[in-house]
Amino acid sequence: MDLAILLDPFATISMPLSDWANDSMRWLTSNYRGIFQAIKAPVKWLLDLVEDGLRGAPQTVLLALAAAIVWQVVNRTTAILTLFAFAAIGIIGAWDAAMTSLAVLTTAVSISALVGLPLGILCSRVNWVWAIVRPVLDFMQTIPSFTYLVPVILLFGIGNVPGIIVTAFFATPPLVRLTNLGLREVRADLVEAANAFGASPLKRLWSIELPLARPTIMAGVNQTVMLSLAMSVIASMISVAGLGRLVLVGISQLDLARASVGGLGIVLLAVVFDRVTQGLGFTRRDRGNRGLWEQGPVGWLRTQVSNRQPLTNE
Amino acid sequence: MDDHSPDAHAIECRNLWKIFGQRHLEVLAAARAGRVDKDAILEEFGCVIGVADATFSVAKGEIFCIMGLSGSGKSTILRHVNRLIEPTAGSVLVNGQDVMSLSKGELRALRAHKIGMVFQHMALWPHKTIADNVAFGLEVQRTDRKACRDSAEEALEKVGLDGWGDRYPDELSGGMQQRVGLARALAADPDILLMDEPFSALDPLIRRELQDEFLALSEKAHKTTLFVTHDLDEAMRVGQRIAIMKDGRIDQVGTPETIVLYPETEYVARFVSSISTLKYLSASEIAVAGEVASDAPTIGPDTPLPVLIEQLANGVDHLAVRDGADLIGRIDRPEILAAVGRDLARR
Ligand SMILES: Nc1ncnc2c1ncn2[C@@H]1O[C@H](COP(=O)(O)OP(=O)(O)O)[C@@H](O)[C@H]1O
Ligand SMILES: [Mg+2]
Question: What is the pTM of this model?
Answer without folding.
Answer: 0.86
